[in-house]
Protein 1
Amino acid sequence: MPRHRDTADLTRKADRGAVERHRLRINGIVQGVGFRPFVYRLARDLGLTGFVYNDQDGVLIEIEGLSAQLAQFAARIRSEAPPAARIVTVSSDAIPQTGDTDFLIRVSEHSARSGTLISPDLAVCRDCLDELFDPADRRYRYPFVNCTNCGPRFTIVRSIPYDRPLTSMAVFPMCPECAREYHDPGDRRFHAQPNACPRCGPRLILRDRDGLVDSDDVCRAAVALLKEGRIGAVRGLGGFHLAVDASNEQAVLTLRQRKGRAEKPLAMMAPDVATIRKYCHVSEREEALLQHRTRPIVLLSIRELGILAPSVAPGQNYLGFMLPYTPLYHLLLKGHFDALVMTSGNWSEEPIAIGNDEAVERLGNIADFFVLHDREILQRCDDSIVRVADGEARVIRRARSYVPEPVFLPTPLRRRVLACGGELKNTVALGRGTELFLSQHIGDLDNPAAYGFFEHCIRQLQDILEITPDLIACDLHPDYLSTKWALRQAGVPVVRVQHHHAHLVSAMAENGVVDRTLGIILDGTGYGLDGNIWGGEVLVGDALGFERLAWLRPVAMPGGEAAIKEPWRMALSWLYATYGPRLTDLRLPMLEAVGRDRVAVVIKMIDQSINSPMTTSCGRLFDAVAAMLLLSMAINYEAQAAIALEMAAGELSPEPYPIESLKDSSGEIDVRPLIERIVSDIESSRDTAEISARFHRSLAEYFVAAACRASEDYGIRRVALSGGVFQNRIFFEYTAARLRESGLEVLTHRTVPTNDGGLALGQAVIADARHAEKRSADNLGGQL
């Protein structure tokens, strides 16, 4: 029972100055996570009076009582906050007493000024799952069960503050029983905005290609269809999944053929960690990630495929598994399947489908049946992907249940900045003060549907966060669609940011660093200051600028974009750069596979600079070595060749090649001696796994040596690692370890992707710093 104050006793103590009233302003992720009910119960427990409500800035509390209890209240606000809450700031001011006799939750207020944070979606909690599978409970097998501690948040929000009328639940009036729960401070569903039950809430709908299907239990009917080998399109939390029995090889192959996804690994969902352990090695850290309320896809080392279809992840050493995070997914899996393939509901690289009609139209040639529902998804959000590398969890794709939690910057932004990201793995970002909001994963903008999603995301983020940018950041590349969009925005200053500079500052900002830092920035493509394609860079810099200290020796990309899709072209380029015309004398099986005619054409293209731009790309070097080893001659998805090279190395840890030139790592990094070693080993029929493993370590040594040389020259003992190449766990872990052995501090990405998904963070920080410097210079007559 709540404890009420004895007013006569308070009056006596007030005469002695023992009663105070405070106004607390709490900012952070404090809406949609049960914060107001928590405050209510805490205040009543301590015998305090006043009120709490949500507004645009977070949560506002006025609290009155004895000073000792107020001190306890303030301490417990932080120490006992709901698990999904994230308190960023708490301010407290003494205000006049009002003599309140109770503590209330007031109706939320909406103002023109926005400062609150929105909760990401939360996986269904244990209490709700108990109800879901309890035949005696009124929510038995109800696929939309939720409470204050779980359920949809960001994906159903239309605007803030987070209250039911401003979500897609507004069209579902609560029945008397749900309303009673919602208004009962002692109930777990007190002020749970998505609260519903079978009488008043959303419902499932089953249809096939011919139309609606009458079913008393849609979940059971869907399970039966999946067991028959059918492909289902299932409407989830942030969009549709394409689901199929992961043990049915023919069904998986059919899904691949219909979806246009020939070889790229497919994500799976299993009912529990014990089941996943049958197929993968799962460390304590990985288990914690799987069970975290974010429920990401976690990349795990394969133990054995067992009954799983071989085509779920051909040629991979890792499987991507996640646990169910909605009641619907628990109903589909529990007691029925070891695993379901649960891949994004889209064709090839298009954005995930979210609407019922949209899904039927876009996925009608892929899915045999559809599990639909009538709760609208307002924010498209794919599954997040995480892996453990170098002892820490690292986000590869940041989307559902991570967005829209912000990245907190070490210094406040001076302007409200919109950063447009890159061309591949695009995300955008909006920044204000110390908060930088990265969007969910958007995808590759060369896809028209993804470009439409890009524009939609920018509008939606601005609307939800109520941030109107007064500065735009974009990539330096003139042909990126994100850059072209930025340059069309009339009346807003635009700052163009070099790609690898943005990677460097992204890693710095995530780690709270502002001082000049060395960076090893390695990826596939980035537009350089000299107009060439960079991607194998050692930099030094901060938000205001950078210097390029070392880079891979430039080689030609014969065929331009074709060299990305056909790695054998890059292999020929590196071989020609190393051996010249003598490359035709090499005893390499790859040369036989390519054929003399194509070899001659490529050599001519390089010699005459015909559609053969120069590149320092580290990603293209990985492609070249993969082709030399006949691991990948053509690719069906981004980084496929580099992934094949990593998979070939396995867990081998041989010594790197003993190349003398590793000691000379200033300026151009010439890896032709490394190519010669690899060719020699191929001609000697050395094991492919050993060659691959030695390549990874040897290449890392080049960059470690370059960083150590730069550290001595500049007196900087800190190195940031960023760029898509560092998604390669073998290369990343070895590089980081060798830098630390050399006495250098290593900055790495954890909550922001190291690939181009983290680019917008660096762009925003750089644009703000450079624009502020330009304004200062203008104010001083250009004297800075």
Note: The chain has 24 helices and 31 strands.
Protein 2
Amino acid sequence: MISHATFCQIQHEFQNKHQKPAQIARRLNLHKTTVAKWIKLPNYIGRKIVPRRSKLDEFKPLVMRLRKQEGTNAMQIYRLLIGQGYAGSYSILKRFINNERPCFPVNLAGLHARQWMHKIMQCEISTSELQVQLAGKLDSETLARFIHHVRLGALRARNKAVAILAISKGVSMRSVSRFLFVNHGTISKWWWTFQNAGIRGLMEFRRGKPKKSDQVRYKDAIFSILHAPPSAYGLYRSSWRMDDIVQVMRDRDMRISKHCVHRIIQEAGYRFRKAKKVLTSNDPDYRQKLQEITGILHNLKPDEKFFSVDEYGPFAVKLQGGRSLVAPGEFKTVPQRQKSKGSLIMTAALELSENQVTHFYSERKNTDEMLKLLKILIFKYTGQARIYFSWDAASWHASKKLYEKVEEINSSQYRAKHNTPLVKLAPLPSCAQFLNVIESVFSGMARAIIHNSDYQNINDCKTVIDRYFAERNQHFNAHPKRAGNKIWGKELVPPVFNEANNCKDPLYRSGSH
């Protein structure tokens, strides 16, 4: 006997490819007589299964008659059949009775209970009739509310109402459970709740507390822990473990499970295997530097400005990939090997109080570019009393030449001559790019104008970047309180300094560091 798939293949080979039976037989490893036989048949004929004869066959009519007699069970029927000459086993009889068991209750009381509950759900019993049937069981106000839930309520409320009405009438919980297809324990719980809390306690929707993984205070606490090295909490390890995070949270009287910690980190876009590279600073003075920066920002005066400084790039100007809307069946591809049209490095500073970006393009990353940015900003903000520079621990951010220039700018002679503000440096902890707020702006810019781009040359790319920041600055000039607006920045987090922030996009590969 061949399968239906083999039959279709034989027909295809014979009718479409015009193969001979012998050729088809060799191809499919069949006998040529078999192939010739199935070629002649227009349709596939499966194997005819002849049911096996059972020792119970001749007694089945008698069993069905005995089953209709009230109170007769399978063991009693088995004993009667033995007297009639039945030579089969009890299991054969039991299996047949279970398969032939009707879906509806056999006893008359169960059938009436089902019919009554069905009429309740179909609103075929009037309110006055129900008041008579349930007199002394439910008061008129409770009954009216139950009827309202049956007619207009959601499925869960309707099931609860039907269950309480049926139990009040005297229907067993097991019959109610079978009719509503609801677990017996759930029916019992509903009845207990109604007896102790009334209809209000039964029907009210108990909205539990929000999940810890959705609460902002738990998210901020976990990221503030991850941003510090384990040694800051007395743990002699180089990277965090789930158990360590849970223990530190418990020490803060914030109990949380490992599953919730994993979910918070994952929803932020990170994977725990990268925690050492992305989420953790190994600076031994992390806490001290962090407190200095937060202290500056908390006491920032109107005539003071705080700048987050960094470089974006170098990145190649070529066809870039990214997420985009495509039609069904369409697959966007990016060549792995491309000829670069040039590369760009952008040096920029984000002023946090007004959310303004100052940028220019550099040939390389070094101290000279930082001095250039410093000079631009001190003359752009001449009316300010003091400006702060905050950047990561790159070597050219902490060179002797830079510190000497800052000392020169802060001299009384230089300030009196040029009317420039006092410059203060507030470096970030080492390996703490996640605290550099401008990284969030770079991530938004990359998604908006770099991903899915195909600029023809460097000048085209510069033009779009300039326009992006010009429009962004213009928007935040008009709306100074709407920092981080998605229309302009698409920042992952608001561009404000926060210990729990994750400014750097974990999927953002183009750019600095």
Note: Confidence is low (pLDDT under 50) at residues 274-278, 482-490, 508-513.
